Amino acid sequence: MDDPGFYTIGHPEYYETLSRLPLQPAYVDALRVTIPADWAVIRSDIWLQAGSRTSPLTAQGFKIHLSCALPDALDMIQRFVPICTSKNVQFKIAADPMLHGFLNSKRYSRGGAGKFATIYPADHACFLELIEALHQATKGMQGPYILSDKRYPGSKVVFYRWGGFQRIRNLRPDGIQRMMVRTPDDELIFDDRLPFFKLPEWVTDPFPEEADESEGDSELLHDRYKVQKALAFTNTGGVYLARDQQTGLAVVVKEARPHTLIWGARRVALDATEALKNECAVLERLQGLPCVPQFIEFYQEWEHTFLVQTYFDGMPLANFRAMEDVIVMTKMEDPDAVIRFCAIWREICIRLLDAVDAIHSRGVIIGDISPGNVLIDRTTGEIVLIDFEGALLSGAADEITRMGANWFNPGFRKVESRQAGSLSHLDDAYSCGMLLYNVVCPIQSLFELDKKQPIFRILDHFVEAGLPAEVRVIIQALLAGNQEEARRHAESWELPEAQFAEPPSDGSVPNRDEAERQAIQA
Fold it and tell me: Is the pTM higher than 0.70?
């Protein structure tokens, strides 16, 4: 999802590194009163590094990571810092609560997410002694699982991995710097942060696991769902296409990892598990509507939470709009192509408004209507809306209300309504207008970067070039919250019947992978 807000955390108008973000004082103050007087605290990018002049720092080895939930950060500092200072071991922590939340969030890289503190033992003996002491000091605490690491036995917040302590960088041709480590033969190799635990071939795991023969060989989730492929991965969990072994139907399994955070546009954070519970409640409320996935099951396995729903084999509107026989931007000189586009666009408009009206009738405000959350059947034009984590149920808790009010795609929520602290039907109408605008020209995220420019400036150029004025009228009505007026214009607009793509000769329906390939080529 294109999100200028993600890149403008440091400054609202310019792309700045997070190293220039002004810090909240909570973690700095807590650290300064906990370390000895002869220790220094230095900011390094998104971290606060602490150490004395005599703290050793070896080149590479086993490092220790601590994770924790945001409310427990000050407690974690009180527990682990005295252990490190007593052993004269350098460490670093997330520089402030906002950056800490960012490290635990959906947006952060899976290979580096979840870390609150990194600790650099002087040698292997120090590592073994220190990790046990940290485990004892942090018993009872909870935190996100650090995917790049392995948990220390018995702990929920103490992790370890092997890697470089001192920075050895390699500059790639594209300008990206990658960290390096040395092999026993003094060869430099990449020290990649992977979203799974992996040791170099010459390093032995100090805490190997014993094989558990009781686990069996089942490849099924919940003894029922056989995963066929991953549709998406983020730090908060995966989305999987699976086959229900009880019914034989294709299903979507959505996963939420505990203590990871949904990251809102206004830096509002909500635990991913709570967001998935909200989506479950929404789907149960919407059960039976053909325009949404059907709820199947909600369950917990190991420490993760899963939502199972029916699978709709459509493509995101973000990809559909770029199909060669749909795109209109390059065909404005061909009146027939413009009319064909308008027929498809009008059909999408009416189906979208039908879906939104049906969802509203069940007491649900969607909140996040965007090109990635609307699926369309390439052959029939059928529309299904997905991803209801931020949707608002009538009577919902304040936390979910706060979440929905701040979780949206940039460019698809009216700027003036963001301060309201809640959602209304007008927000969904506005999102529909921007979605239909996006099918004509996908520039909505740019509106966030230049709020002074009239929204219709680009669309008006298309109208001047031959796009029927009805497109602008319908979008304008929706942006103003006049959904019924937009529907009247769409239904009274006389156009030929929309012609969606015919199925392939073998009778199969193009899948999402093929749709994405075609969209990239387009």
Answer: yes
